[in-house]
Amino acid sequence: MNKIILIIISSCLCLTSVKAQTLTKEAMNNFASYTQKPEISTLQKAKKNIDDAYKTKKDSLNYRINLIRGLIYSSLAYADSSRKISYDKDPIDEALFALDKLKNPKQNYEHESEINFIRKQLSNAWLTKARQASNSLNYTDAFNAYLWVDSLSTDKYLAKHNLAVLSEKLGHNDRAIQYYKYLISDNNRSLPDYYLALSNLYEQTRNSNNALTVIEQGRKAFPGNKDLLFKQINTYADNGAYEMVSTLVEDALEFSPENLDLIYLAGFSFEMIGKTKKAEEYYKKIISVEQNNYEGNYALGLLYLNSYLKSSNKDKSLLNNSRKYLIQAGEINPNAINVLKSLSILYNITGNTIELQRIKNKLSQITIN
Description:
By secondary structure, the protein is mainly α. It is built from 20 helices and no strands.
């Protein structure tokens, strides 16, 4: 009797096995048809076949069944991004579960192309979700989706780009720094914007040395880039490195020859390093571009006044020039305290007591008001 039962059970198992093999074969055939002619109805048939073959715990451990499920569900995850088909579980989750079951190294090696296909389809599916979240301004969901894209992709550069940008938007500065460091490490695909963004992040985290180092690296990688050049100049100026500014400012003026702020910075930098003739040249250039420019006239007047004070021969022409431009600056901005103070020094030197008293009175009025 027991022998008969064993025979019946064995027969049932064989029938089940044969049925499962038939279903997996049909699933694979339908999937192959889908890859030749991508119609979602064919993929649905493949899904039904593999679902019917996936019933027992033994089925869930079967390498071939899991491989086919991974192929089918990863394709559904991407092709049916709007989820028009009804699922018990999301196809992304089903595909990831199947992929996780593929643990046999020998079989994985033999089916490397199929596994890569599954990973690529899943990556595309997550990329679709990431873009949808970004378009909805849901940056947290977009970030999490791009993390999946990053983990599944062979080429991670696009994912790292988006993770860097989203990290900035979400205020994750330390994380953004790591992503941008990765992006600039690829000399063939790095962009000037990556260096600028990374430098700005270092500034936000109060790491001025790294901010400057990154910009210097960016200038070496993109020597003709205007934005990196201007950023380098501004960074040097912020750190008081006027010698460095003076070596770069003329290159910057080739991009923007009538940029008054840049011309002023050039004059000021040369003045700070003691090259007064070059400073004079640039301050005069400001006035040639805009005659009634307050900064240009005041800077030039003050330059002549300081040159007189520092000189040993006390050239009177310096005082005359100083008076000319300081008076012009005062006419442009009559209540500018810096101009009035400079004029008071000048009139004190020249002994012009009437003008000196007038300036003192005006300073008093401005102070009271």
